[in-house]
User: What shape does this take?
Amino acid sequence: MSTENPKLEERRARVEALLRGIEKERRIGVIGSMNADYTIDVPHLPAPGETVRGGEVRLLPGGKSSNQAACAALLGASVSMFGLVGKDDNGSFLLERLGRAGVDVTGVARAGRPTGTTLIAVDAAGENAIAYAPGANDLLDAAFVRAAEELLDCDVVGLCLETPLNSVRVAAARCHEAGAQVLLNYSPCSEPPSRDLAQSVDVLLVNEHELAQLTGLPEGGPWAEAQDALLDMGFSEALVTTGPRGSMVLGEDCARRVESFEVRACDTTGCGDAFMGAVLAGLASGYSLREAAELGSCVSAFAALGHGAQASYGTADQVVDALRQGLLG
Ligand code: RIB
Assistant: This one.
């Protein structure tokens, strides 16, 4: 579909070329969480003490790390997942779905604890609230990381904070030392990172709320201050997602905005993970951080069109089709 907006047409063509250029040559490793998401659509998110009647409960594949791995693989990148699920039906379900997305799951172990589980409510505007029971994800400790030798063969590595922080620190240090490009999604945001963790990370990914929590600065404050605060912590580059205002690429001497793609959102669950998955795929394909962020904007907008996290992600062809149909503007 052509528009009368040449700038938008130019942008769509640029992103289409990025989608078409995703390569399999360099391997992505994602180590972290895998969850079974029990999701209910509700007219509004329940307030404390409130019960809200919703639609049918859906069981969908999720977990931030698993979502990021699935997104990158669907786009055409070569991806290995490292983590733990239970010996239960939900564990088999997650492995089957991730395998179907094209992710190598030989690095996922079955543990004697239930598979990680979430309860998710999604409101009429597509916003969500999530409660998380880590289950088997909590067994991802430093010993598991050290035993995952294939992780050290990966060129780009994705981490998040749904597994114990010490294992994230060990994984970041080992992969950084082995020469991989390490991306850390500081989500869900908890305690501030140690300096050694920050220095093992090549690119930090956060949303603007997490950035405020991390730096102690007010949300929407000047980017230069946030940039200085991150540099002081030991991070060198960061991508900050700012919802409908797109994202910011923060480096030692630059702060650049990347616009979002407008979309009629059905469910925003896992859109941040789609952004990270696309950035992993982009960096593994040799793109600049800015190009990877532009790819992330488009792919995360596509993810808002469908229900669930992984269940709403598309292949490069499907995202290109949506761009051409004008569903992402
Ligand atoms: O970011 C979305 C994800 O967060 C969901 O899939 C859920 O599992 C929680 O981990």
Notes: The pocket of alpha-D-ribofuranose is lined by residues 35, 37, 62-64, 67, 118, 130, 132, 162, 269-270, 272-273, 309 (CB under 6 Å). The chain has eleven helices and 13 strands. The first helix runs from residue 6 to 20. Residues 16 and 320 are 6 Å apart (CA to CA).
